[in-house]
Amino acid sequence: MERIDTIVIGAGVAGLTAARLLVRAGRRVVVLEARDRVGGRVVTDRLSGLVTDLGASWIHGINDSPVAAAAAAFDMRTAEFTVGGYQVDSRPIAYYTPDGRRMDDAAARAFAADVHAVDAALVGIIAASEPEASYREVTERAIAEQGWAAARAQRVRDHLEHRAEEQYGAWIEDLAAHGLDDDLIDGDEVVFPDGYDVLPRRLAEGLDVRLNHVVSAVRWADDGVGIETSRGAFTADSVVVTVPVGVLQSDDFTIDPPLPPLHADALGRLEMNAFEKVFLRFEDRFWDDDVYAVRQGGPEGVWWHSWYDLTRLHDVPTLLTFAAGPAAQAVRNWSDEDIAESVLAQLRRLYGDRVGAPTQVHVTRWQDDPWARGSYAYMTLGATTSDHDNLAVPIGGVLHLAGEATWTDDPATVTAALCSGHRAAENVLGHAVPIESAWS
Length: 440
Known about the structure:
This protein has about 450 residues and is an alpha/beta fold. The chain has helices at about 15-25, 65-75, 105-125, 135-145, 150-170, 200-205, 245-250, 260-270, 310-315, 325-330, 335-350, 385-390, 415-430; strands spanning about 1-10, 30, 45, 50-55, 80, 95, 190, 210, 215-220, 225-230, 230-240, 255, 270, 275-280, 295, 305-310, 320-325, 360-365, 375-380, 400.
C-alpha cells in the first residue's frame, strides 16, 4: 500500500491548484481522479471541429482575478463577453414582450430602470430577512414597495425568476434570500475561444494524477488517512477532498468518521442544481443584429427566455440557451432533438420562418454525471453565506475540503475552486504560500 504525504481527491481546478502548491512546497502528492481526464466541471468539446465549453465558460470579472492571472500566464486567448449577473442592460439586448414584439429602446430602458429600482430596494430587504426566507419572498417585498400596476410588476417578476435560475439553476422559491449575495462582478467578463480546459490541463502538468480511480471511502484519524478506490488503497498524512457537493452527499462516497456537525450542517443546507447548456448552431444567422442576447418575457418564456449569441467566437452562427431549474428537471429525459424543437418553437414565435434547422445541437447532461450530480451548488432555505467557508475548516488536522462550494466570496465559479485549492494547500502546510506559485 502506497504511503503519500497528501492525497488530493479530484483533478478539477481546486484539486490541481492544491496539488501544485503542495508539490512546489516539497510534498509528495498523488491526485486521484474518477474520470478519464482532468478538469472536472471544466471540460471542452472539440469533436465537431469547434470549441464548446460544456461546463465552466466565463471568468466573471477579470479585475484582480487569480484565474485571469493564471490564464494570462498560460497564454490563454480570451474574448470579452460580459453577462454580469443576468444583466438587464449595459450590453445590447433584444427584449421581446409576451406577445412576441420587440421592445423599442425607450421601453427597454424603462424596463431596465424598473429592475434597478427593485435591486436597490432588495439590499435592505435581504439584510433584514429571516434565515428561512426565500429569494421569492424578498423579491416580492421589493416589487410591492414600488406600487406598480400588475403587468409592470409581472414583467420584473419574470426577470427575477429567470435571474435566479440562470445564476444558480434553482427555482426562485428554493433559493435562499441571501443566495445571490455573492453576485458581484468586478470588471469585464471573458470567455475562451480555444477552450477553458487549457487551464486544468496546464495546472496538471508535472503532477502525479491517477485517472480512473474512483474513490469510495475516506477514513481519517489523528495520525493520517486511508483512501479506498476502485484501483486499490492508499494511505497518507493528509487528504484534500475536492469532489462536488452532490458527490459528498451521496451514498457512494463515505467519510468515516462522519463530518463534524459544523461541516455536516453546512453541507446539508447546500444542494446541487439543475442547469444544462443547450448549444444550437445554424447555417445562417436569423436573429437581431448587433445584440449579444435575445430575451422574451411572459408565459412563453417560462423555460426558454434567453439566447446568447456566440457567433463571434468562431464565426459560426451559434445561440446558447440554458435549461435551468424546473426546465432542466422537466427535460432531463428528453432527447437532444426534442429539446432543440422545444427551443426552436419559441424562436419561431419571435422570428417566424426565418428560423432554420440547426446544423448541430449539443445539450449538456450534468444532472446525470455520476462525478458531479449537477452543475454547481446553491444555498437552500436556511443557509447562510458562512456555510461555504465552514465546509473548509480543517478536520482533525488531516482532512480538508475544497472546491467551488467551499468559498464564500464567489462560490459556483472557477475562481472559487482555484482559491479554495490555494487555501487548502496553506492549511495542509500550516503557512502561507503565494497563489501565483500555482502558475508562475
